[in-house]
Amino acid sequence: MIIKTLTVDGFKNLRNVILSFDDKMNILCGENAQGKTNLIEAMWICTGLKSFRGTKDKDFIGLDRDSFHIDLCFEDRQRNQTISFNMSKNNIKEKAVFLNGVKLSAPSKLFSSLNCVIFTPEDLELSKGRPENRRRFLDLSVSQIKHSYLGVINKYDDIINQRNRLLKNIALGISQKEELDIWDEQLSKLGSYISVLRYAYTKRLSRTAAALYRDITSGREELSLKLSSTVFESLEGRDDYSGEMYEEYLNRLKENIDEDMSLGYTQAGIHRDDLVTYINGLPSREYGSQGQNRSVALVLKLAQAYILSDEIGDSPVMLLDDVLSELDPTRQEFVISRINNMQVFITCCEENKISRQTKGKFFEIKNGLAREIIRG
Ligand SMILES: Nc1ncnc2c1ncn2[C@@H]1O[C@H](COP(=O)(O)OP(=O)(O)OP(=O)(O)O)[C@@H](O)[C@H]1O
Ligand SMILES: [Mg+2]
């Protein structure tokens, strides 16, 4: 998949940006706060997903602007396609999004047209950081290959919030215990299904990431992954999410009711799962060095891109925001060598940090404007 051209105006600080890209390597250079990440974000929202840095839709529009426009042309295996994403201040809910000139009912309908993998410095904390980051990573990965999944996750989140509110109300004597039943049934149904999908993805991820990890450590260390569930003892070979697994999930919720009530939240469920990473059999989060955990995070992201590539039969566009400058030369080289058949966008603050040998197009981003620079 290749992004050919991009036009952006009024998105955050970006103004009159008209760029045409290299099929392989694109380097976006500029000082801090000039608009590099904004440019990456403008491409990212054309995937139909929410901002990777949590920007609310209304904050996409430039502070001194009434609207923004993004036009992006890309090429996949079959054809050239165009995405147009427009939003105006006086009607934030009503986004005008077009795919090949046809108006879509919502940005999420863009999903699966343009496929990108975003890699930021926060991702380097993936294996060391908080479990919720790993859950988010897993869920985004699964949803990129199974589009209905995101809706399932959102529904689960809604219901868990309702259940937690109800738990507090029962403790206060405002609501009855029996009112939990309806939420528990829905949680068990969705939670079992999510567990099956997360488990299947983790298995696939484990295989792909282990091979990459063997490469980066020259065969000295072995990486393995496990989905740790607060509901199921083992998920191996299980797929009966509407039968036995559903019953087990429901029982687990029932067992915990009294404790959940005193705590005011639901202790067991997929919202407490974790993706545990092991190096030579030991959990890397506790035992691994900073460097080992960085390598684990790197290979997880690369594996995510490989699996997506496998699934869609085309390589996703790699968006590396500020990530290369965070890595030592060996790891930089490793990443670049593993994505050299994909289109890549890299942001950096100092152009001279990028090797003179690097082929591709260079762009300067300054005060919301962008232009191609020819290196002498
Ligand atoms: N809605 C908005 N309207 C106008 N400007 C905005 C808006 N949202 C963010 N900005 C500004 O955009 C500028 C550039 O942000 P961006 O994150 O793209 O910088 P960057 O070039 O990636 O910098 P860094 O190297 O520090 O990561 C910031 O100064 C920010 O204040
Ligand atoms: Mg940035």
What would the keywords be for this entry?
binds adenosine-5'-triphosphate; 6-stranded mixed sheet; globular; alpha/beta; Rossmann fold; 2 domains; 376 residues; binds magnesium ion; Glutathione S-transferase Yfyf (Class Pi), Chain A, domain 2
Explain what this protein looks like in three dimensions.
With 376 residues, the protein is α/β, with parallel strands linked by helices. It has two domains: 2-115 and 315-373, Rossmann fold, CATH 3.40.50; 125-287, Glutathione S-transferase Yfyf (Class Pi), Chain A, domain 2. The chain is built from nine helices and 15 strands. It has helices at residues 36-44, 131-145, 149-171, 180-216, 244-255, 257-263, 284-287, 290-312, 329-338, and strands spanning 2-9, 17-20, 25-29, 67-75, 80-88, 91-99, 102-104, 116-119, 223-228, 274-279, 282-283, 317-321, 344-348, 361-366, 369-373. The strands form three sheets. Strands 2-1-4-5-6-7 form a six-stranded antiparallel sheet, with helices on one face. Strand 6 (91-99) and strand 7 form a beta hairpin. Helix 2 (131-145) crosses helix 4 (180-216) and helix 4 (180-216) crosses helix 8 (290-312). The chain starts with a strand and ends with a strand. Residues 12-13, 30, 32-38, 59, 62-63, 322, 349, 365 line the site of adenosine-5'-triphosphate.
